[in-house]
Design a protein that fits this description.
The protein is mostly beta strands. It has one domain: Trefoil (Acidic Fibroblast Growth Factor, subunit A) (Trefoil), CATH 2.80.10. The protein has one helix and 14 strands. Strands 3, 6, 7, 8, 9, 10, 11 and 14 form an eight-stranded antiparallel sheet that branches. β12 and β13 form a beta hairpin. It is globular and about 40 Å long. The protein starts with 9 loop residues before the first strand and ends with a strand. Pfam families: IL1. Keywords: Cytokine, Cytoplasm, Immunity, Inflammatory response, Innate immunity, Secreted. One of its GO terms (biological process) is negative regulation of myoblast differentiation.
Length: about 160
Amino acid sequence: MFSKHPFSTHISGRETPDFGEVFDLDQQVWIFRNQALVTVPRSHRVTPVSVTILPCKYPESLEQDKGIAIYLGIQNPDKCLFCKEVNGHPTLLLKEEKILDLYHHPEPMKPFLFYHTRTGGTSTFESVAFPGHYIASSKTGNPIFLTSKKGEYYNINFNLDIKS
């Protein structure tokens, strides 16, 4: 079942994203390379991207019981993950966008939202815009992507280590 919401939205009276790192079950972390997020083995010589996370301000307008709807971004450079159909396939992309602008938008920005589900110590991130498609990783050095092949060939389970 779903855990309680692991993210804070108010620190010192103002909305503030949480920050952390993501790594898959093969101990591969996310890094920013060539305008994409790719996975590489975790080591002391690798600096993972800092992910930024904010829950959707209006979750009541989205499907219930699918997890916590979140915006997922990175720092340095400030970009957000979003899903778009490219050549007939749901595709995971990065876009220069401020996570707080998405949060304050008067309605949910579905292409930028993911249902976060935590089971035990691992998390999955399902696209709100493309239900049944999850953020996934595969081989070292390859970009993260969307897949509908849940648990078949690709890793859709991640460890989310919140630092704030």
